[in-house]
Amino acid sequence: MSRSARLVPNYYVPPSSKRVILNWTGSLSATEAAAGTGVSHFYRLNSAYDVDTGLGSTSMPGFAEWSTFFLNYKVHRVRTKVSIMGATGTTTNAMLRAIVFPVAYQAVIPANAAVWPSQYLARSKMIAPVAVGGANRAVFDEVHDIARILRVTKEQYRTDMDFSGQINANPARMAFLCVALVSLYSSTPATMIGDISVTMECEFFNPVPLST
After folding, report:
1. Which domains are assigned to the chain?
2. 162-179 pLDDT, tens digit each
3. Entry pTM
């Protein structure tokens, strides 16, 4: 055996980062406080640790297993598929507006539901209540640009640690998805019924200390 061969260490050196695809699915059900006031629910677009703001510790399946090897994570791409139906009373001509839009940094939206469709990057569709029949389901299938939502450059999002999270924590700078429903021409509050699928490209990594 040569001298160089004897110097090769006989152990495995783990990688400092790993990108994986994680998927989570959930359901939602919420009712307006009064007809026309709207109802909404938030999801965290760049947190693989806790996706659903309404539930406790809804980690992406597989997150806990990868977390044992690394100290930090960052979500680089996320795709959501939201399917919304709504139910109201039998008011004649009642309609529903389903809306999805991203929210930067804080899960806060205007109290006036009439302006929700005009929010940044919002998409909306008109649907009929389940009892009325017709087109009573709205589907929103989107790939989200987290840097665009947070209004930073792609380079800043890629390199700034504020947009990553420590294992078992949310990132310091958050991007949310608001899923909402508003009843129109109805005398009774609407109930939002739906489901959501979230797919994330998540990088797990160990930060490299800066030399002084």
Report:
1. 16-205 (2.60.120)
2. 899 999 899 999 999 999
3. 0.85
